[in-house]
Write a structure and sequence with these properties.
Blueprint lengths: L20 H34 L4 H6 L10 H10 L4 H33 L5 H11 L8 H11 L6 H7 L3 H14 L2 H9 L4 H12 L1 H16 L3 H6 L8 H10 L9 H21 L1 H13 L1
């Protein structure tokens, strides 16, 4: 016997599955986010690409070729001229920039970590006022402090000396606040109290315990301070007179200001020197990358 045919009322035709409206909205939002990120990447990379391309050209190609693409390759000749022009003054400026940026950042990192740790883990009269002064200090534009600093260093006889640039870079209110915030989350109070109960002094606690727990924060403070000191322009322009003490940014500015009356074309030298000045920043970023990776790993283990 054959099975009875199903009733037509029980037979349902397959209808296409309707996708919820949220799927279309999520795809549209994702597309807008990707578009925005792409525009930001182009906005960030385009000046660097232009600098790389321009550093490979001579004066004629800079004027008559496409600004965003290569022409005749003159990068090696431009680098040689940068290194040999004015008896190799570029190396002197490079050493000065490394001294001001590296030495200032190292001392600033140590002072900032110590001050941030003190504001975070010590209770003393006026602590809130001190924290408010730190926050208010980094809200003041740094250019407003240049003239008072110049007057102070002029009375001390330190103008036109490396100390006129180094000493102001030793203190950074923003770095102190950043170190204080990082200490709040990275240094447990129980660990500090246990070390005190074991008889450890405050200096030993800071050097052997706190600094090891704050390597990621210290690397961040050092890098931010190094970049700020490396790109600093207004303070060296005010404090330094002789070109032997100039920084790279100030020296390249001087070359650019007199490119019309020089015996050789300084435009290509300024662009090539600007490209070379970016290399130390990239090297420091790569060298300090492992500290951030270590800090993220420790945070996940906690």
């Amino acid at each position: 016997m054959t099975a009875p045919a199903p009733s037509p009322s029980l037979v349902r035709t397959a209808e296409p599955e309707e996708r919820p409206a949220g799927v279309h909205q999520s795809r549209a939002s994702r597309g807008l986010v990707l578009l925005g990120l792409g525009l930001l990447v182009v906005y960030s990379v385009a000046p660097v690409w232009w600098l790389i391309v321009s550093a490979t050209k001579d004066q004629r190609d800079l004027l008559y070729s496409n600004g965003m693409w290569f022409a005749d390759f003159h990068l090696l000749r431009n680098i040689e001229q940068v290194f040999t022009y004015n008896d190799g003054i570029f190396f002197r400026w490079l050493g000065n920039s490394l001294l001001y940026a590296g030495g200032g950042a190292a001392v600033c990192t140590l002072i900032s970590l110590a001050a941030g740790y003190s504001l975070s883990r010590f209770r003393f009269p006026g602590r809130g006022l001190a924290l408010g002064a730190v926050i208010g200090s980094f809200l003041i534009p740094y250019a407003m402090l240049t003239l008072p600093l110049y007057l102070v260093f002029a009375k001390l006889g330190l103008v036109d000396s490396p100390w006129a640039v180094l000493i102001p870079s030793f203190v950074s209110p923003f770095a102190v606040y950043l170190a204080k915030v990082y200490t709040d989350g990275a240094v447990p109070e129980e660990l500090i109290e246990a070390a005190r109960l074991d008889g450890a002094g405050e200096v030993r606690i800071f050097v052997q315990i706190v600094l090891r727990l704050m390597t990621t924060g210290g690397a961040t403070v050092f890098l931010l301070s190094f970049v700020q000191n490396w790109n600093q322009f207004f303070l060296p322009l005010t404090m330094l007179r002789g070109e032997d003490n100039w920084t790279l940014s100030l020296g390249l500015y001087y070359w650019n200001s007199r490119r019309d009356d020089a015996e050789i074309d300084l435009t290509a030298l300024v662009l090539t020197g600007s490209l070379l000045s970016v290399i130390p920043l990239a090297l420091f970023m790569i060298a300090l990358q492992r500290y951030w990776r270590t800090g993220v790993t420790l945070g996940s283990l906690k």
